[in-house]
Amino acid sequence: MGLDCFKPFGSFYVFPSIARTGLTSQQFSVGLLKEKSVAVVPGTAFGASGEGFVRACYATSLDQLKIAVSRIGEFVRETKAARAAA
Predict the structure, then answer these.
(1) What is the pLDDT, as a whole number, of residue 9?
(2) Average pLDDT over all residues of the chain
């Protein structure tokens, strides 16, 4: 989906960079929730250096993860397309 992310080691969370979308972590998190019903936490919840990232938990079923990843991918593509058209 075009988001950079370090491979997680020993946890149930990922912290992908959403900088390529052009949105703040707050804008990304709220937009994803409103438009795709997927919840992530803005990186700024973990301090100022978290800007440009979101935290996502993957402690759920594989079926739910597939749905969430698909919706996140849609949101990222739609966001990039809308910004390119503006």
Answers:
(1) 85
(2) 94
The amino acid at 44: T
For the chain, the DSSP string reads -----PPP-SSSEE--B-GGGT--HHHHHHHHHHHH----EEGGGG-GGGTTBEEEE--S-HHHHHHHHHHHHHHHHHHHHHHHH-
* Listed residue (74, 7, 10, 4) closest to 38, CA to CA: 74
pTM of the model: 0.92
Distance CA 66, CA 73 (A): 11
Residues 6+ apart with CB under 8 A from 86: none
Quick check: 44 pLDDT over 90?
A: yes
Alpha carbon 43 to chain centroid distance? 10
Query: Do strands 13-14 and 41-42 pair parallel, antiparallel, or not at all (unpaired)?
Result: unpaired
The larger pLDDT score, comparing residue 28 to residue 6, is at 28
